[in-house]
Amino acid sequence: MPDSITDTPTVTTADLPDTAPEAEAPVPGRGRIIAVANQKGGVGKTTTAINLATALAAVGRRVLVVDLDPQGNASTGLGIESARRTRGTYDLLLGEITLDQALVDTAVPGLAVIPSTMDLSAAELELVDMERRQDLLRDAIRRATNRFDYVLIDCPPALGLLTLNGLVAADTVLVPLQCEFLALEGLSQLVRTIDRVTSTFNPQLKLEGIVLTMYDSRNKLSSLVSDDVRSYFGDKVYDTVIPRNVRVSEAPSHGKPVLLYDLACTGSQAYIQLAREILQADAQKREMPNTTETGGLTPDSLRPAGATAAQSAAHKDTSMEGPTGETGDAS
After folding, report:
1. How far, in Å, CA of 4 to CA of 226, rounded?
2. pLDDT at residue 28 above 70?
3. CA 307, 308, 309, 315 torsion: positive or negative?
4. Helix axes 45-58, 266-287, angle to 10 degrees
5. Are the beta carbons of 3 and 261 closer than 8 angstroms?
6. For residue 305, how many other CB atoms are within 10 A of its CB?
7. What is the 3-class SS of the chain, one letter each residue?
8. In the prediction, which pLDDT does 1 show?
9. Which domains are delineated in the chain?
10. pTM value?
11. pLDDT at 187
């Protein structure tokens, strides 16, 4: 296995096994923006963002990852060393650079990233007094949908202003959920916050889906969490589950997505299957363009007793304070 990202062979469709999604011509027109979000840390959010992006790019999609997390783990996991991160999402949010200037190519053909820099850690304080502060990212990356089929936003593990920017900019939100009790406990708060964003800032926001991560078939708790989530969210939970896998954990230390680090491992195969599900769902939507989703984002079982979808969106939630766009950290 090569030790450097520069030594890594590029991934092409031919490199993927038969279980990979079939390559097809990118859909002309506007791409989609997907926020990968969960206010709880350590649930596989960044891992999902970079490996799903790699799997989509490997079958011919043009993909952009926006690293909105001040920790910069998505940038590191895609092989962008700190020395190369002279500017990124922070500068883009402030309007100091253009989208073209912010893009950095990765070792994966068709996959680019807008890296995170240390300055982003101060963004919550610096942006709070700006007008339309919740729309800064949307304004900055709007044109990216003309160039990329998928834009994946790796949101920070908090329900603050940066995550709000990610949700406002997105068409859909993908929620990685660790198969542990505490992760399940915070899911209702996250989804209600998404519902609140939908009613206040971004009416078009939809739930892309929930992907179960760190699944351990030897652990009964993983199965119980999976059953509970599927009973609440039904077909919004992907059939694919991401297993606990040491190769997935090792890959970021080598500056590589796991699909580059070890294509044959179970973690890589799971992300390939997740990409397949997303591509198949998109194909079905194109075949039935008049199909619409109703009922908001929050299942009835997670709403206050007797509340409708609209009432749930207005329900007082400590994770967001009114229509001003100011948010609190619920981590």
Report:
1. 37
2. no
3. negative
4. 70
5. no
6. 5
7. CCCCHHHCCCCCHHHCCCCCCCCCCCCCCCCEEEEECCCCCCCCHHHHHHHHHHHHHHCCCCEEEEECCCCCHHHHHCCCCHHHCCCCHHHHHCCCCCHHHHCEECCCCCEEEECCCHHHHHHHHHHCCCCCHHHHHHHHHHHHHHCCCEEEEECCCCCCHHHHHHHHHCCEEEEEEECCHHHHHCHHHHHHHHHHHHHHCCCCCEEEEEEEEEECCCCHHHHHHHHHHHHHHHHHEEEEEEECCHHHHHHHHHCCCHHHHCCCCHHHHHHHHHHHHHHHHHHHHHHCCCCCCCCCCCCHHHCCCCCCHHHHHHCCCCCEEHHHCEECCCC
8. 42
9. 30-323 (3.40.50.300)
10. 0.80
11. 81
Q: If phi over 0 gives left and psi between -120 and 50 gives alpha, with beta otherwise, what is residue 236? A: alpha
Mean pLDDT of the residues in the chain: 81
Cβ neighbour number for residue 309 with a 10 Å cutoff? 17
| Whether the predicted pLDDT of 26 surpasses 60 | no
Cα 176 from Cα 214, distance rounded (Å): 10
